[in-house]
Here is the input.
Amino acid sequence: MEINGKTIVVTGAASGIGRSLVKRFAREGAQHIVSVDMNMDGAEETVSLYGGSAQKADVGREADIQNVIEKTEAEVGPIDLFCSNAGIGRAPDLDAPNDDWQLSWDVNVMSHVYAARHLVPKMIERGGGYFLNTSSAAGLLNQVGGAAYGTTKHAAVGFGEWLALTYAHQGIRVSMLCPQAVRTAMTEKADDPGIRAAATDGMMEPDDLADVVIEGLRKERFVILPHPEVLEYMRRKTNDYDRWIKGMNRLHLKLTGAA
Here is the structure.
C-alpha cells in the first residue's frame, strides 16, 4: 500500500506512536489524516503540526468509533487506512481491579473490533481497504509484570489474524504493528519490570518506528516488527514452549526481585 493520496484515520494521535504516524503519513502525501484521541488538545496540536483534522473519541466505546467513521466518510471521504493505534497498560497482576481488566479489554481489543465492524462492509462495497492495528511484541511473546497487557495484546493479534483470513479475498488487508519498547508516555516508568524487559534490545524513537511502518505497509506485511529480534524470540518460543516459559520465569525473577 502506498500512502500518497489516501484518507487515513489514526487513533491515539495526540502523542507518541500515533503522532509520529501522522507525521510520516503527511510526508508521504496522504490526502487527509484524521487525528483521533481523548486528548483533544493534543490531537489538535498534531493537526497544527501536520495538517488534517481532529476528532475526540474514547476508542473503548463503540459509539465513539462509529461516529469517527461516519463523520470522516461524510465530511472527508472514504477511509482507505484505519490505524487503530490507541492502547493502555493497566492491570499488572492478579490483584488488579476488574475494572482495569475490562478497560484494558475495551481499549486494546474491542477498539479493533468496533473499527472493523463499522468499516469492513463499506470497504468491501468499494473494493477493499486496510487496517493497521497496533499490538505489541507482548502480543506475540508476553509481558513481564503486565498481565492484562500481555493477554489483551495477544487477543488483538488473534483478532487481526481472523480479520485477515476471513476477508482477504474481498480486498481487506491487515497489518499488526508489534514493537518492543518505544519512547512514549507509556514507557516513561523506567523502574517498571515490563518496560525494562521490553527495552532489552533498546528504546526505539517513534519517528524511527514510523519509517518501519511505511515499509511494512508498502510490502503489505501482516506482522510489522520494528525490532527484528522479535522474530527470533517467536521462533524460540514456538520451537520449545516449555524452555521458553522457564526462561521467561527467570527473567521475571530477575526483573521483579521475586523470591
In short: The CA atoms of residues 25 and 179 lie 18 Å apart. The two ends are 49 Å apart (CA to CA). The domain at 7-230 is CATH 3.40.50.720 (Rossmann fold). The mean pLDDT is 94.
